[in-house]
Amino acid sequence: MMKNVTPEMLKARTSHVINTLKEEKSLELMDKIALVLLFVGGITWGLLGIFNWNLIGALFSGFMARLIFIVVGIAAVYMAIVTPKILKYRQNHSHQGTMSHTEIS
Question: Could you list the residue range(s) of the whole structural domain that residue 67 is in?
Answer without folding.
Answer: 28-97
